Amino acid sequence: MYEQVPPPATPPTATDKSDARPVRPPFEIMAADSPRIPFVLSSPHSGSYYPSELLAQSRLNEHMLRLSEDSYVDELFGDAPALGAPLLKAVYSRAHVDPNREPFELDPEMFTDPLPDHVNSQSERVAIGFGTVAREVARGITIYRGKLRYAEALRRIERIYFPYHHALKSLLEETLGDFGEAILIDCHSMPSHGLTLIGNEGIPDIVIGDRFGQSCRHDLITGAEAMLRSMGYKVVRNQPYAGGFITEEYGRPAEGLHAFQIELNRKLYMDERTLVKHAGFVRIRQDMARLIAHLADYMRDAKHKMNSLAAE
Q: What pTM, to 2 d.p., does this model score?
């Protein structure tokens, strides 16, 4: 699991030379209360810190840059620690660097100098402008006034991307060691418009992604979908979001590691134009807590039944 990049050699501790303000930590961990459950939650796109270097380089103001942000998603799943599951959340915005990508998915057209051979410049995500350092915040809305140097991208990857993934890996390994199984829920939001779906069912409230059955045990996904439907949500699976790099990288059912992605329609809890929460926010947060509690109960009951059968 995730051995393709090393941690940064010397993590920054004081100030970033490209930013006069103090360097923010690359992530925050909301620790789990006891008793714990075998879940870890990740919110890689809810970071809302836009460093001055990004604002100076961008042709967009901060409000426009937030178009790609999963605003408030960390808060929507914020009851997870009280239920026994740690929550890892990004601090920096995904417009600055995106943890839900391979470490080096970069568009060579964005840079003044040649990129190293290990860079993946051919991925579909790079093609549409959403690499590790993104070209766009939304389709056709470019971020930068001019081109960057590769050293700029590398600095962001070393200082922000790598630490996020090493923290996530540590949380999963600890949970796997304690429970013999670990379930990662990767938490996201999606716009209420502009989605490409198969069929004519309309835009869903929630999309669950398990890499088309590859990243998570089937009964857990089925249970999550059934629970959400019972709450009154319109739920679809794997379209248009089957799970990104995090789900694919950490979902290894054969090793006891399960991962699925959940996308919440932003109209359910916020005004997408002003980015202000509305009354629906409270319900969504409560329902996400109910979902986690339900899945934890299911896992506990399933383990108890398995142990009972083994004892017979």
A: 0.91
